[in-house]
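Hey, can you fold this one?
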Amino acid sequence: MSKVSIISGGASGLGYEIAVRLVRNGNNIILLGRDEEKLAKASKQLKDIKSDVFVETIKCNIGSENDIKLLGDYISEHKMIVEYLFNNAGIGLFAPADKLNSEMIDKAFESNVKGMILLTSKILRITPKEEELTIVNIMSTSALVGRAEETVYCAAKWGARGFTEALRVELKGTKRNVIAVYPGGMQTDFWKIQGENRDISSFMNPALVAEKIVNAVILSDKTLVTDITINRR
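Sure. Predicted structure:
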């Protein structure tokens, strides 16, 4: 059985930068995303970095139970063991509280909370209990503080944080490790996708954020970091 690392939202931004560092470290990876074109581009670039590392991309909406089932079937059929799960996928939602509606709420919670839970649950079910699994839930500093015009986004991220902390308690004493990551704003297409026209020139470089995460998660020797908050200076 071969060991792999899974990264949701891995075709661009922070997820892609994490993938770059994993490939350099020799980790086999599976990238999940919704955009096939972005996934194909990411796959080619990653294989150019280190051709002898296994890189697979799978179109997957983590908020879809059927997509998650198909992913689990693929992993089981190919006799893979997930060593690291990076729950990185998520979307933003920025609007005044008096402008919110059901569609906006569902959209924010599907990716930021529901998808994280569905993917994590599936990986827990298919990973043999004797194998060590590290679950890295990448959220946002908006999971730690409330922000104006981010009420639903904060609610979703606080929900993800609640799931993460409860999961850690539930899995205590097993070979499952849970790491919470709370990064601040980064210079990625996240803001463009959300239609946000804001100056992000002072925001963090996702490559540097990825380096800190991977160093803490992968390269720590006989130590476990449980919570990582990363802010710009």
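The domain at 2-230 is CATH 3.40.50.720 (Rossmann fold). Let me know if you want another pass with a different chain boundary.
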